[in-house]
Specification:
Layout (H helix, E strand, L loop, with lengths): L4 H11 L37 H17 L7 H18 L7 E5 L6 E4 L3 E5 H6 L3 H16 L2 H8 L5 H17 L2 H12 L1 H27 L5 H14 L16 H14 L11 H12 L8 H10 L4 H13 L3 H14 L4 H13 L3 H14 L4 H13 L3 H12 L6 H13 L3 H14 L3 H12 L6 H25 L8
Parallel strand pairs: 1-3
Antiparallel strand pairs: 2-3
Amino acid sequence: MKQRLQPALLLLALFGSLASAQTPGGRGDVPLGPPVQSTLPDLGSNANTVITKADEYQLGRMMMRDLRQENGYFDDPETTEYLQSVGSRIAVEAQDGGQTFTFFAVRDKAINAFALPGGFIGMNTGLITRTGNESELAGVMAHEIGHVVQRHIARAYIAQRGSSLTALAGLLGAVLIGAVTGSADAGMGVMAMSQGAAMQQQINFTRMEESEADRVGINFLADSGFDPNGMAGFFSIIMRERGNELDEIPSLLLTHPLDQVRIGEARARVGSMTPRPRRPDSESYPFIRERVRVLAAASDSDLRGHYETLRRNDPGNSALVYGAALAEMKSGSPATAAAWLKGLATEQPKLTLLQIALAQAQYAAGQKSEAVATFERALAVSPRHVPLSVRYAETLLDMGRAKKAHQLLLDLFNVETPSPEQVKLIALAASAAGDTGDAYYYMSEYHISSGDLMLATQQLDLALASPDLTDVQRKRFQARREEIRGYLREQRNDRSGRAPPAG
């Protein structure tokens, strides 16, 4: 993943103008994505002169699907909900009409973040754990939001429309170099040296975009109540971590402005700003940082000694107690974790992630009735809370209470759009509860999220053949099947008459 993602995304944007048709489903339905089989676009076609927001969204969904299939997606509901809450707070200030933003974590220890087409913004787990405060984390998000709002991928696509085949070959070569070396900057530098002035112009354009994202993002950061110094603070972290790795690459050939330049510019912008009202860091931030540290660590790692040392130096730090408790659970000591978490949950009863962790520790320690009671109390305070409902449903399924789990998830996803992982969970709950129609229906939604629309229609055929369907279920399944079939017909019509791509 590391830095090589950015040139790869530029190449995909260049070659990836996709069909813009998108038919959203009802509540709980996954929006239809492009078929698994697709042809390369005709770069000379007038229809591809501009890549639309719908095109970008479809491309972003494809990349997200690949990320999940490669096990790069950090599937943790608590972390995802937190990132979405922080990112959405900043995105509101962007006021980019009609643009949706999806924030997620990537399982990668490198300090990196990236914006995919369509408003999908990924934050590496290594980046999250290295931030010193919430404003530093928010500063990275604001920068990536700046890329999306300024439509840098679409602009790169348009800028490259007139490039020669030689220049495009150079760009592909740079991507390959970046993939081998792990350095996008090195790859783009070699590309420039091999292709001359035309490719140098592209590097300047990319560097300009990075500065523009900094400038736009820092205003979003300040307007949303975060400390705008967080952006410069995080650039300082990057500079310390990089050390001398970029010393041998001429600064002229770097796609990103040098760190010290970015730090100086960010501080200068803050100094010229009109002060805005500030809000303190959220209660969740330090807990999420420790959660990611533990859960993203290698499966055979034992962080108990790490937290024991930290807690000796800072005994009143609740987030360190939380991290230590998660480390105890990961290492097979849930009873110890439950004892520590009970105190934290009592001190901060409204912090839902503490209630979830307590209930999970109690259940793992064999305290099943206490775990159920903890979940129920938390739900009474935070009904339809996504991570809480999902974790409770997982526990209920393990207890053999599938019907309650199924009903809990149905109630949740009637108002919240589930992730692919959560779609699969409700399909499992429906099957265990004996509702085969719903089980097949939700498996069809899961296959839509993975791009296999033919298999999705087969699952809907099975759903409609299930016994004891209600009228509501039958109409819903039929409507969804016809929606998918209509989408596939449109795709076939779009490709009719078009010659297949050269081999």
